[in-house]
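Journal club side-thread
Mid-discussion, someone asked how the predicted structure for our own chain would compare to the paper's figures. Pasting it here so we can look after the session.
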Amino acid sequence: MIANTSGFADTESLAVARSNGAMPPEPFARINAAITTPFFGEELAVDHRRLAAHATWLLGAGCDGLVLFGTTGEAASLALSERKQTLERLIADGVEPRRVLVGAGCCSVAETAELMIHAAGLGCAGALVVPPYFYKGVSRSGVSTWFSEVIEACGAGAPRIWLYHIPQASGVPIGPDLVGDLLAAHGELIAGYKDSAGDFANTAEILRRFPRLEVFVGSESQLLEAWRAGGAGCISATTNVQPGPARRLFEAWKCGDGAAEQAKVAAARAAIERAGPMIAATKAMVGVIHRDGAWRAPRPPLEPLADAARRDLRSKLAEIGVERL
């Protein structure tokens, strides 16, 4: 049994606290794929057709939410104009905007605010915002000021915000004290938190101190622990590959168990992590799922997963029982 670190005695107490307003209502989604971005041609332009098809498949196969332009979506390799156009096309192709969080973190205040306003105007669930990731060793007050300037620049067009903690990539942590500062300054506009650092002690501390936030872990391997602690769910790269097993884990957890399902999704996650760089390995397996090798290509400086590693990973995931592999 994984310990309940939420500050409530049991899942029944968690439910009571939620109904009394001490915890958030049901989150906008439980199983979220940090959706990968397909490219085509020599210029590696965004492939809107393939993206919409994959998004539709994910939402039918177990996901109830998507994060567009996250780390896995190669947001740092996309121009602001590409992000805006891609979001517009995805919604025009039938993906419900209420199912979409938009990764809106850019280094500049102006670009971050522009993308956030665009997402809100299209009816998206909100924005997942990573702090500016070029300067390192910046102060807590400096990061707080940056968020305040972004929100001020959005004005009445600001969407709800999920804070994105991924210090191993951004170099700028969003720890509990900074979260407290932002909640004090901006109230209910701060809706949630994604913890991709992999340290569940930080996740547990966020859940304990800020129970009204929707808190997502960045890996399915922590899902059962997160739900037992009062978390919302996951926003994960590897949910691109295993939406069905992740959904079955959620259904099993609701029935009071889930250990066997958790072991399966954790094994698949570990296999993908070991195969090579996460983005390349995920894209390779999405290509296998859709029987479409065009999915494999990331934008430089990233490179596709090697053929031998791709074949080996496909075999391992098939042994675990991941569908369509």
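Post-session note: DSSP finds 13 helices and ten strands in the chain.
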